[in-house]
Amino acid sequence: MIIQPRFVEFHVHPHRRVWRVYRDGELLSLHCEKDLAVEEARRLARAHAPARMTIHAPSGRIETDHTYWPDIVAATNEDVRPGHGTFPS
Questions:
Q1: How many Å apart are CA 40 and CA 66, to the nearest integer?
Q2: Helix ranges restricted to H, the chain
Q3: 3-class DSSP state for residue 77?
Q4: Total-model pTM
Q5: Phi, psi of 82 (to 5 degrees)
Q6: For 45-85, what is each residue's pLDDT tens digit?
């Protein structure tokens, strides 16, 4: 059985003269510039990985969509290669 991860959803929406950042439908913050809203949503998505960040245009259509996965540090250990060494205990 394959277990699908639950993604935390972050959205950046323009509304009048501000940009809104939402997490799973809940308003988190307001920004006067799009770049600041995107930066905040990206920071939050990375911190809550696995997560998706979707940026919407004023028309409501999706401009971009990004997926963030957790960093896997142990799997990149140089001593842990197939046929070389063992996993740390």
A1: 14
A2: 34-47
A3: coil
A4: 0.73
A5: -55, 125
A6: 999 999 999 999 999 999 999 999 987 554 444 444 444 44
